[in-house]
Structures are given as structure tokens and as C-alpha cells.
Design goal:
24 helices, 724 residues, alpha/beta
Length: 724
């Protein structure tokens, strides 16, 4: 409770600072903001379609994780607020204002006063870049003119501090996601309604382009890469297939597997035929050798006959031709000419054999052989076997010729197989690579189409509306903040000063700084209207003081002693003693005032070695029933004997409430307490404020209504009634 009283009195003491200073600050802020610009808010709502859009990849509603959705929406928000997007908005906005602005009348693009200011600050060479017929052409001209230089006007529009076109102004655009939906709400406010309105219109137009560039860029690059790879691999596939085709053509390959099967089958058949022919050849050869042993010398001469040999060669040649044609040209696919030629050869062969037989019969002149068999039979058999032998020779020759051709075909087809397989493997690998790239290309194109659909879903649901009314001014808020800020600052400042201040001032601070109890307080001069009550204040204060002193007088002590002490001169010791003497004298109590330099010398040996104050007092009155008020010299100059301090009923330290409690005062007071022993050491505050005196005496005049009310509340009498 005492702490709360202290806080209340602290606030009361600085009341005028707390009342006047914040009001002055609020007044200054009010005057400073009297021409404060008004702000015109504009907003729009964008549907993104990120959450509930249609996915081309799946053909169903696009359901994604919350992380992907939040990341995508954050990307859109960052693109809207990116420096590149805002730079485009700045250039288009400036171009639009320069094209459609009117210096005489406000319009939906810009106010006339702002347009006139814009015309004044725009250099002539920049004005030449303005194409009144095309906003896009004007923006291209501005981009061509812009360069990073402190002297470039177009560069400075965005990078300096223009209120409409700078990055600092456009960065105030706010984008907020509406809950967990696909909606984004964009807010912007400017001091010109046309500027705010056109800024959001341009932002909605330009951010979608930036989004498409960023989104389509990577996918388009992927598509371009896959197309190039597809063309390259397709060319390799075509070259591989052409190479295989040309190789087959060069090697006369239609179907390698079937052809090799046919060659193997032909080789097998040829081997069987060869074995059969060889058997017939050996048989005929053996028969001829036998028959020749049975023939006479005349028949031996027949073998060397030129005509016979000619006819025999003729038969052998025809046998070769017939054997060749019968072996390889008698299938169902043979032509009629081939068949006719074969028949002709057979007829010629038959004729040649007949001629050979006739010639042999006419050449032979013996009728019987050595064993007695007819010669004609042996000649016939010999010729027949000879013809068989010649036929077999011809067939063997033909077969061996074809076997050589088959060997060549084996040598021809053997490397072709591995080469064809190698080329087919290469073509198969390239084909699978081609199909893989084609699938990736289709997926990338599908992704691009999905992105196009998502970009198309960025629609403006609630377009910006041209603002007609400005939003409420922040002037009132600024004034309130200034008032509250100054009030808090003053409270903090004075509280800090009060915490660091070592002025005694009141009872609570005095007891905190000194550690001793305060007996009472004497009023100072007071305020002008309170000075007429000074006498009353002194009487009430000394009454409380005297009563307090009497409480420390020992029972039965006929002459109590009160030592009035101070650490320095000018504290009001004499004034206090005079007031106490007058008070007690008026009540019939004897008082003996003993003062230094008048009644004793504080520097004399008698004082220093005195055992009692009575030794220094002149015997003017009796000691019995007399109060001794002893005024000592400042203890900072002269010390007081220990016996005199302990002899007294009370040692009263007088200190001025308006002076600081210094370190030396503290040391002197501690020493005084130690020397006093069991004698109480109390403090009396002199020249205290009226409120401090009231804490001892109760309420002091004047007793006005407000004075009574204030006093009652300082005593926390919130529900008290009647006079306080």
C-alpha cells in the first residue's frame, strides 16, 4: 500500500508534465499532418486453379500434395511481387500515363496535378520516346533508352523513390491467399485513384506473361531437346536401315534364313546324288575292266580308234549336258524352252549312242570270245557299261562343279549372317532409343499443354474497381500514437530520474536512503497561494513532532535531552528548536535550549571530555521537569562526544528534504548511529513539500472540494463518504 501511495504521489508530482507535454506533442503532430495525403485502396481476386484444376497427364482433376500446392502458389505470389514483374508494371504504367494523361482534368489514368508534375520532371529526350498511338511501342522505346546510370531518367523511375513508379512504391503491393483455396487477393493503395487502379490492371496482365515465360521455358527447352534428339536418332535409324538394305542388295539377300536353309538343303541333296552317281561310276568302271579282259586284240584297237573316241566324246558331252539339265533345270519352274532343249539333248544322246553301238558292231570281226561267248554280246555290254561310265563321269563333273559353287555360297553367306545380325541389333537399339525419345517428347508436349491449361486457369475473378473514396486517414492514429509515445517517454524518463535521484524529498525515500526512521517533517515556503497557511502548517507539523519526541522520553526522567544534529549547516536546526520551545512553553513545559558557540565551544576540551550536557549548561533553571534541546555543530565539522549522544533520550538528525543525501552524509550518519549506542537516532525533514508534511499531520488547508477529493484518493479512500 505504501508503495502504491508513493507511485501515486510520484505521478501527482509530475502531473503537469504528463498533461501538458503530451498535449503539445499531439498538437504538433496534428499540425504537421494537416496536409497528409489520402490513400485510395484497390484490390482484385485471382483464381489460380492449382488445387482443383484439370491435369492433362492423368486426365483427371489435379490432386497434389499440400507441399506441392503451397510451393506452386508461393511461386505465383513471388512472381507477382518479383522485381522483374514490377519493373514491367512501372514502365507500362509510366507509358500509359504519358499517353492518356490530361493536364486539365482528372481521368481514370492519373490526376491532372500528378500528370503536370510528371510532365515537368520528364526530360525532353524521354518525351520523344512516347508514341501516342501504341503503348507497347512506347515501352520498347523506354527499354531501349534505359541503362544503369544515375543520370538515366527511365532507370531512375524504378530505382529511385518516385511515389508511383519506383520499386519502393510498387513493393507495397500485398498478395494474400484466401484460406486453403485457389484464390489470391491482391491489395494496393496509392495517393492517386487512377494510379492504383491502373497498377493492378497492368499487374494482372503482366504477371501472367512472366509466369508463362518461367513455366514454359524449361518445358519448351525439354521439347526442343527431345525434338533434336528424335531427329538425330531418326536419321541414324534411317541410315542403319538403308545400310542394311544396301548390304542385302549387294549380297543378293532377300531372306537370309530361308536362303541359307535352301543352300543347306541343296548341299544335302547334292551329296546324296553324288554318292549315288559315284556308286554307279564305280560299278560301271569295274564292269568295263572285266569286260575288257574278255575282248580280243581287235577290240583293244577299237579303244584307240579316233572315230570311236570322237563318238565317245560326243556321247560323254551330251551326257554331261543332259545330266546338268536334269539335275538343276527340271523343277516345276523350268521354262518350256529349257524342257525342249533337254529333250533335244536326249534325242541327240540317243542318236550318238546308237551310232557308237553301230560303229562298235561293225568294227568287231570275231564272233566269239576266248571263253566261247558271242562277241557281240560282250561288245554290247562293254559299250553299255562304257556309256554308263561316261554318264557317271559327266554327272560327277557336274556335281563337283556345283559343289564348288555351293562352297562359294557357304563362304559368301557365313560372314553375311553375323553382319546382318550386328546391323539388326544396332537398328533395334536405335529403334528402342527412338521410341523412348518419342515417348519423352510426347510426355513433354503433354506437360506443356497442361501448363498452358494451368496458365489459362489464372483468371481474374474480381477485377479492380476504380476507387471513388479514399480510405480513412491515419492522422488520428498518428496523433494518438504521438500522445501515447510522449506520455510513456515522460513516464519512463521521470521514473528513471526518480530511481537515480538521491534527494531525500519524502519519508519513503529518506528511510530507503538512510535506513533510519523519519520522525516528522517541517514545511517549506510552499506555493504562492499556500503561503498564507504557512503558520498553520508549522503548528501542525511541530505538534506532531513534539508528540513524537515525547514518546521517546524515558519514564521518570526529570530532564530528557534531545540532541538536534545535522551533517552540515543551514539545515534548520535552530528553527526547529525554536518551534519546539515555543510549543512546549505554551503548554507549560520548561524547555532549556543549548546551542553551540553560545553555550559551549564544540572545539574546547571541556566539550570533548564532557560526561554530560548538564556540565556545559548554565544553572538558569532547575534541571527537574525540563526538556533540554541541544543544538550541536554540524558533525561534518565537529564530532560529538559519545557520552553526550548516549546520554540523550533521542538523537534527532535534521536534514533538508530538497538536498541530496551524499556519500559523506551517509558515512557520518552511520558513525552517529554507532556512537549513539542504544539511544534512538531519528530524522526530521526540513523544507518539505506540503504533501510530505500531510503524510505525518493529515490533511492541511485549504480544505477545498478538490483538495479533499485528492487527499481522499491519495489515501485510497475510494468508497469513503463525508469529510476526510
Amino acid at each position: 500500500m505504501e508503495f502504491l501511495q508513493y507511485i501515486f504521489r510520484f505521478l501527482y508530482r509530475i502531473r503537469w508534465w504528463l498533461i501538458i507535454a503530451p498535449l503539445l506533442v499531439a498538437l504538433m503532430v496534428t499540425l504537421a499532418t494537416r496536409n497528409m495525403e489520402r490513400s485510395y485502396p484497390v484490390d482484385m481476386t485471382i483464381y489460380t486453379g492449382i488445387v482443383s484444376g484439370y491435369a492433362m497427364e492423368t486426365g483427371e482433376t489435379n490432386v497434389q500434395s499440400s507441399t506441392v500446392v503451397n510451393n506452386t502458389i508461393d511461386n505465383i505470389i513471388n512472381i507477382i511481387l518479383s522485381k522483374e514483374t514490377l519493373h514491367e508494371v512501372s514502365l507500362h504504367l509510366y507509358a500509359r500515363h504519358m499517353i492518356y494523361g490530361d493536364p486539365d482534368e482528372d481521368n481514370e489514368y492519373i490526376r491532372a496535378v500528378n500528370y503536370r508534375h510528371l510532365q515537368r520532371i520528364t526530360p525532353p529526350d524521354v518525351k520523344k520516346l512516347i508514341d501516342k498511338t501504341s503503348e507497347d511501342k512506347t515501352v520498347e522505346n523506354l527499354k531501349g533508352y534505359e541503362k544503369a546510370s544515375p543520370h538515366n531518367f527511365v532507370y531512375g523511375l524504378f530505382n529511385w523513390n518516385h511515389p508511383h513508379y519506383s520499386y519502393g512504391a510498387l513493393s507495397k503491393i500485398r498478395v494474400v491467399r484466401l484460406g486453403n483455396s485457389d484464390m489470391l487477393r491482391v491489395f494496393y493503395a496509392a495517393n492517386d485513384p487512377g494510379v492504383a487502379y491502373q497498377t493492378l490492371l497492368l499487374l494482372d496482365k503482366l504477371y501472367a506473361k512472366e509466369y508463362q515465360i518461367l513455366q514454359f521455358g524449361s518445358t519448351s527447352n525439354a521439347i526442343r531437346y527431345f525434338e533434336e534428339e528424335l531427329a538425330r536418332v531418326g536419321k541414324e535409324l534411317e541410315e542403319g536401315e538403308d545400310s542394311l538394305t544396301n548390304y542385302n542388295i549387294r549380297n543378293r539377300i532377300i531372306n537370309y534364313n530361308e536362303q541359307t536353309k535352301q543352300v543347306a538343303a541343296l548341299d544335302k541333296d547334292l551329296n546324296l546324288i553324288y554318292q549315288d552317281v559315284l556308286l554307279r561310276y564305280n560299278s560301271a568302271n569295274a564292269s568295263i575292266r572285266y569286260l575288257e579282259t574278255q575282248l580280243d586284240e581287235n577290240m583293244q584297237h577299237l579303244k584307240g580308234n579316233a572315230e570311236f573316241l570322237t563318238k565317245l566324246n560326243r556321247v560323254s558331252d551330251l551326257n554331261t549336258r543332259v545330266a546338268e539339265m536334269e539335275a538343276f533345270y527340271t523343277d516345276s519352274t523350268s521354262s518350256t524352252y529349257t524342257q525342249q532343249q533337254l529333250n533335244s539333248y536326249k534325242q541327240q544322246l540317243g542318236q550318238a549312242e546308237k551310232e557308237l553301238m553301230d560303229f562298235s558292231q561293225s568294227f568287231s570281226n570275231r564272233k566269239y570270245t576266248r571263253e566261247g561267248y558271242p562277241t557281240s554280246n560282250f561288245v554290247t555290254q562293254w559299250l553299255e557299261e562304257l556309256l554308263k561310265l561316261e554318264k557317271s563321269k559327266a554327272e560327277i563333273q557336274v556335281i563337283e562343279t556345283h559343289k564348288q559353287e555351293l562352297d562359294k555360297q557357304y563362304s559368301h553367306f557365313s560372314p553375311i549372317g553375323s553382319t546382318i545380325k550386328r546391323q539388326e541389333r544396332s537398328i533395334d537399339f536405335i529403334e528402342r532409343n527412338y521410341l523412348s525419345i518419342l515417348a519423352s517428347l510426347n510426355a513433354a508436349r503433354l506437360r506443356l499443354k497442361s501448363l498452358e491449361m494451368n496458365s489459362a486457369s489464372l483468371k481474374l475473378i474480381n477485377p479492380p474497381v476504380f476507387p471513388l473514396n479514399a480510405e480513412p486517414s491515419k492522422r488520428k492514429k498518428l496523433v494518438m500514437v504521438a500522445y501515447a509515445g510522449s506520455l510513456i517517454f515522460l513516464l519512463g524518463f521521470f521514473l528513471l530520474v526518480d530511481l537515480l535521484d538521491r534527494t531525500l524529498r519524502d519519508r519513503i525515500r529518506t528511510e530507503y536512503l538512510t535506513g533510519a526512521k523519519v520522525l516528522g517533517a517541517l514545511p517549506g515556503k510552499g506555493k504562492l497561494r499556500q503561503r498564507r497557511y504557512t503558520k498553520t502548517y508549522q503548528e501542525k507539523a511541530i505538534q506532531y513532532m513534539a508528540n513524537g519526541l515525547q514518546d521517546y522520553f524515558k519514564p521518570g526522567d526529570p530532564g530528557p535531552i534531545v540532541n538536534v544534529i545535522s551533517t552540515e549547516s543551514g539545515t534548520g536546526k535552530s528553527f526547529l528548536i525554536d518551534l519546539l520551545s515555543d510549543y512546549w512553553s505554551n503548554h507549560g513545559i520548561k524547555v532549556q535550549s543549548v546551542r553551540y558557540e553560545r553555550d559551549f565551544d564544540p572545539a574546547s576540551p571541556e566539550f570533548l571530555f564532557a560526561g554530560s550536557i548538564r556540565e556545559l549548561v548554565r544553572q538558569e533553571v532547575g534541571f527537574e521537569r525540563t526538556i533540554f534541546l541541544v543544538e550541536h555543530a554540524p558533525i561534518g565539522v565537529y564530532s560529538i562526544p559519545k557520552a553526550l549522544l548516549q546520554e540523550a533520550s533521542l538523537n534527532l538528525m535534521v536534514a533538508r528534504a530538497d538536498r541530496v543525501w551524499k556519500d559523506n552524509d551517509k558515512q557520518l550518519f552511520v558513525r552517529l548511529q554507532q556512537q549513539s549506542g542504544t539511544t534512538p537516532v531519528l530524522i526530521c525533514l526540513d523544507r518539505a513539500e506540503r504533501e510530505v508534511v500531510e503524510s505525518f499531520t493529515g490533511m492541511l488547508p485549504p480544505y477545498t472540494y478538490w483538495q479533499r477529493l485528492f487527499y481522499r484518493y491519495t489515501q485510497f479512500g475510494f468508497t469513503a463518504s463525508g469529510k476526510s
